């Protein structure tokens, strides 16, 4: 006569898993139309955002004060903003349409400003035709990307470098060392995934053939591995050996996003078919846990990278959900996953809710970007 | 004693002994001891004291009651139960005149968010440092704004002076903090990573004035969010988002040269607009002691060779300014956003406002091992500014992104719940709303539009607060935590 409930693992109560964000602490208002993407800078002081109004904005994180803004496109949405990793320089990348911009917002001291500008400029010394190749008949191929200066209007505002690819860029993902970044243009077929080398102003297409339409990519946090998500699978590749390592099968119908745990052995996946999946990469190519808490698509998932066992997802239902997910070092034991908080406040506009999320680099604070035109800081 | 016997029966009674520090309202010895019903609260006790058989006051005086240094906020019965006391005990009730709410007086409108305020009065710190005594009615309010300008106001809300714009040697970005050094000198710190010193002069009639830049100080690599000054020694301390604490002198001749790498504009565009002749200098020392943005730096008011700093790295550090070394580090549980010294209390305390919506009181003396003394709870958003009551050792006002200032009386406390981590917990005695919120039933999410960024408490001018509503707001400050003549 064993009560079956007694056999279930006992989950700790959320109150025992503090700290995690519980309330909206700052609101960032200024964008016209949806905010598509946001990220807190490595120092934890600034928030960058980009949206449908074609602007990139930098805000003071704690006060919500807009410090800087640049309109980088008059007809295209800014789909993604990402800070270059590292504290040696301050460089923000943003993409609107087929153009990727690298910029130095005027929030830095003169020394850092020079270092940052030099990082953007050093590639001009390399042969500009290095991204070009000859076709079989000897004609010059159209380069996969053009690295140019964006013109004096933008350069005066700190927007210093433009990389133009063939179709709309939806994703930017930096390598931790800050010299490489990858972009995804889902409609670009063969050249959908590109890897750019900042120091050489070089763009390379690492895959001849992709087994589906790429959605998003990420560099492994410590090993030379590169992860590419198509609609249904995530493949990891060894960049040095140039070979496929693993095919991860979350079982979702359409992957929107994924994130690799800072420890490197676990991964979360979010999907448009409302699923959040946790993969233990040591364990299986199938998910260790499937979570269905949202009644609309999940658009973004993100681990905390600053030492807290937290992760979050963002959904078109207008909410973000915070989870406690502690990865244990014991190989035989799996992560304990506890939903701890649903954060509500973003209004759903035209069936879109929360578009993007990010965590603070040190504190258990997160930020969210909404289709309602606001960003929010949660503490 | 007839009074007590006529009170409703069916409740327990307890022996109390009334005491006070105010001679004018002292009871005769024979009336001090009394039996009162245990279900009575502050109001009932106040009525008893005012009654014919007791003080026999012509007009009722509202009283508050302290037991063992803590305000009675419950019935006596609940107090006895909470403290495990029997009703056989004799309770010592110290009565004080009730606190006076900090009533709204005026608002001064700005063009942009107001980040910081300071006050010049006969009783203010800078007023005492000033050569001439500030006469009543001639008090000045200094405001620092996100528009990059400083303004000096009189108490009627007239702008007497506005600082020079960026093209004329002013800050090139938002000002985060500003202080009077004296009646004629002001220091400010900015998002533009500089400290600027200003000469302040007024016309004879006191209705107009001038704020002229006299010195630019370079050395920080991030926004300088906090500045403190010491007039007599010309010394300045600053806290920056770059994680360091700056130690400076306002004396042009004794300040070191400015670090050339940090001079000058960061973009071509700005190079064209800033061409000034204001002298530029560097720090006496730059102490990189925090691992996250530093949010506050203050002089120890009792020893000006010592500064305290607070930061988002959760620490309060004690810095020996003569050697530029950190001599003590106190680690708390949360990012700290502001700091104030409470020197009036027998043991020296500092109060720090946190991002976690509470204020923590810490004893930073090196000899003390237990760090956290008390926690003040009630704000619903980050606490970014603190100022102590100039007239009471127990009073403190805080400014928060929840859009309120809260007044605390350290004698008003209770035992914290398990969820609060136990310890002594203080609750606000008054909540000061923004005047623009009058009639509003709910505060906006995230304090949007009403965040308070700065608050200062002066004996002559009152509680002056500033914020996102682009207003400097003045509330009365007398008797708020120190009852008259108690
Ligand atoms: Mg494992």
UniProtKB/TrEMBL annotation, chain B:
Task: State if Glycosyltransferase is listed as a keyword.
Answer: no
At the top level of its lineage, which domain of life is listed?
Eukaryota
Task: Give one Pfam family, short name only.
Answer: NLE
Which key words are in the record? Answer: Nucleus, Repeat, Ribosome biogenesis, rRNA processing, WD repeat
What the entry lists under PROSITE patterns is as follows: WD_REPEATS_1, WD_REPEATS_2, WD_REPEATS_REGION
Where does the NLE domain start and stop, copy by copy? 14-80
Q: Does the keyword Transit peptide apply?
A: no
Question: What cellular-component terms does GO give this entry?
Answer: nucleoplasm; PeBoW complex; preribosome, large subunit precursor
> Which stretches does UniProt call biased (Low complexity)?
250-261
| InterPro entries registered for this protein in UniProt | NLE, WD40/YVTN_repeat-like_dom_sf, WD40_PAC1, WD40_repeat_CS, WD40_repeat_dom_sf, WD40_rpt, WDR12/Ytm1
Q: Which GO terms describe its molecular function?
A: ribonucleoprotein complex binding
Q: Where is this region: Disordered?
A: 248-285
Positions of WD repeats = 168-208, 217-258, 376-418
Output the GO biological process annotations, alphabetical, semicolon-separated: maturation of 5.8S rRNA from tricistronic rRNA transcript (SSU-rRNA, 5.8S rRNA, LSU-rRNA); maturation of LSU-rRNA from tricistronic rRNA transcript (SSU-rRNA, 5.8S rRNA, LSU-rRNA)
Query: Known SUPFAM superfamilies for this protein?
Result: WD40 repeat-like
Where does it live in the cell? Nucleus, Nucleolus; Nucleus, Nucleoplasm
What is the role of the protein in this entry? Answer: Component of the NOP7 complex, which is required for maturation of the 25S and 5.8S ribosomal RNAs and formation of the 60S ribosome.
Query: What family does the Swiss-Prot or TrEMBL record give for this protein?
Result: Belongs to the WD repeat WDR12/YTM1 family.
Subunit notes for this chain? Component of the NOP7 complex, composed of ERB1, NOP7 and YTM1. Within the NOP7 complex ERB1 appears to interact directly with NOP7 and YTM1. The NOP7 complex also associates with the 66S pre-ribosome.
Q: Mind telling me what this protein is named? A: Ribosome biogenesis protein YTM1
Organism from which the protein derives: Amylocarpus encephaloides
Organism taxonomic ancestry: Eukaryota, Fungi, Dikarya, Ascomycota, Pezizomycotina
Q: Which gene encodes it?
A: YTM1
């Amino acid at each position: 006569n064993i009560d079956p409930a007694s056999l279930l693992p006992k989950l700790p109560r959320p109150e025992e898993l503090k700290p995690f964000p519980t309330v909206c602490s700052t609101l960032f208002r200024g964008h016209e139309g949806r905010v598509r993407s946001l990220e807190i800078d490595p120092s934890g002081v600034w928030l960058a955002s980009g949206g449908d109004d074609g602007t990139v904005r930098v805000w003071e994180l704690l006060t919500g004060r807009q410090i800087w803004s640049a309109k980088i496109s008059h007809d295209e949405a800014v789909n993604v903003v990402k800070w270059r990793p590292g504290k040696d320089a301050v460089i923000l990348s943003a993409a609107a349409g087929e153009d990727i911009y690298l910029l130095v917002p005027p929030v830095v001291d003169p020394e850092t400003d020079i270092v940052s500008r030099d990082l953007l400029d050093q590639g001009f010394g390399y042969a500009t035709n290095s991204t070009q190749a000859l076709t079989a008949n000897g004609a010059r191929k159209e380069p996969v990307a053009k690295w140019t200066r964006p013109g004096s209007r933008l350069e005066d505002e700190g927007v210093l470098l433009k990389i133009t690819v063939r179709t709309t860029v939806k994703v930017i993902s930096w390598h931790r060392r800050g010299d490489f970044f990858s972009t995804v243009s889902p409609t670009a077929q063969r050249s959908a995934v590109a890897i750019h080398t900042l120091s050489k102003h070089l763009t390379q297409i690492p895959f001849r053939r992709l087994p589906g339409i790429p959605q998003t990519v990420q560099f492994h946090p410590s090993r030379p591995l590169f992860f590419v998500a198509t609609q249904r699978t995530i493949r990891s590749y060894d960049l040095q050996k140039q070979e496929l390592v693993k095919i991860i099968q979350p079982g979702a119908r359409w992957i929107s996003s994924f994130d690799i745990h800072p420890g490197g052995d676990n991964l979360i996946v979010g999907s448009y078919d409302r699923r959040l999946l946790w993969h233990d990469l040591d364990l299986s190519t199938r998910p260790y846990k499937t979570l269905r808490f949202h009644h609309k698509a999940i658009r973004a998932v993100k681990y905390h990278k600053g030492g807290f066992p937290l992760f979050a997802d963002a959904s078109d239902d207008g909410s973000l959900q915070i989870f406690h997910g502690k990865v244990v070092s014991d190989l035989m034991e799996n992560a304990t996953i506890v939903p701890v908080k649903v954060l509500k406040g973003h209004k759903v506009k035209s069936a879109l809710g929360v578009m993007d999320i990010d965590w603070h680099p040190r504190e258990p604070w997160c930020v969210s970007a909404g289709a309602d035109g606001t960003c929010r800081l949660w503490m | 004693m007839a009074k007590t016997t006529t009170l409703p029966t069916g409740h327990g009674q307890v022996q109390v002994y009334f005491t006070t520090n105010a001679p004018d309202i002292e009871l005769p010895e024979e009336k001090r001891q009394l039996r009162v019903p245990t279900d009575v609260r502050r109001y009932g006790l106040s009525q008893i004291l005012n009654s014919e058989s007791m003080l026999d006051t012509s007009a009722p005086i509202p009283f508050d009651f302290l037991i063992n240094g803590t305000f009675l906020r419950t019935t006596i019965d609940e107090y006895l139960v909470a403290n495990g006391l029997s009703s056989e005990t004799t309770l010592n009730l110290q009565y004080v005149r009730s606190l006076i709410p900090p009533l709204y007086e005026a608002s001064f409108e700005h063009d942009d968010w107001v980040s910081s305020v300071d006050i010049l009065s006969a009783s203010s710190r800078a007023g005492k440092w000033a050569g001439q005594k500030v006469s009543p009615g001639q008090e000045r309010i200094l405001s620092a704004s996100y528009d990059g300008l400083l303004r000096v106001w009189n108490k009627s809300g007239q702008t007497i002076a506005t600082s020079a714009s960026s093209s004329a040697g002013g800050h090139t970005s938002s000002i985060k903090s500003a202080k009077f050094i004296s009646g004629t000198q002001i220091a400010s710190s900015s998002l533009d990573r500089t400290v600027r010193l200003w000469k302040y002069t007024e016309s004879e009639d006191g209705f107009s004035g001038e704020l002229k830049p006299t010195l630019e100080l370079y050395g920080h690599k991030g926004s300088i969010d906090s500045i403190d000054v010491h007039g007599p020694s010309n010394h300045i301390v600053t806290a920056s988002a770059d994680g360091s604490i700056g130690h400076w002198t306002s004396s042009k001749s004794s300040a070191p040269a400015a670090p050339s790498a940090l001079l000058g504009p960061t973009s071509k565009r700005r190079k064209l607009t800033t061409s000034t002749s204001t002298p530029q200098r560097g720090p006496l020392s730059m102490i990189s002691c925090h691992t996250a943005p530093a949010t506050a730096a203050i002089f120890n008011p009792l020893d000006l060779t010592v500064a305290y700093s607070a930061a988002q790295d959760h620490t309060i550090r004690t810095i020996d300014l003569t050697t530029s070394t950190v001599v003590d580090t106190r680690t708390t549980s949360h990012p700290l956003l502001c700091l104030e010294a409470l020197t009036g209390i027998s043991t020296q305390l500092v109060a720090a406002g946190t991002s976690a919506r509470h204020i923590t009181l810490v004893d930073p003396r090196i000899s003390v091992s237990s760090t956290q003394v008390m926690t003040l709870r009630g704000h619903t958003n980050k606490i970014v500014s603190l100022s102590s009551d100039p007239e009471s050792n127990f009073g403190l006002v805080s400014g928060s992104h929840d859009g309120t200032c809260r007044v605390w009386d350290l004698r008003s406390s209770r035992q914290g719940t398990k969820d609060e981590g136990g310890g002594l917990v203080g609750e606000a005695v008054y909540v000061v709303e923004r005047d623009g919120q009058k009639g509003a039933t709910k505060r906006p999410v995230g304090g949007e539009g009403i965040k308070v960024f700065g608050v200062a408490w002066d004996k002559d001018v009152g509680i002056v607060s500033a914020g996102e509503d682009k207003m400097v707001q003045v509330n009365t400050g007398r008797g708020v935590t120190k009852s008259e003549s108690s």
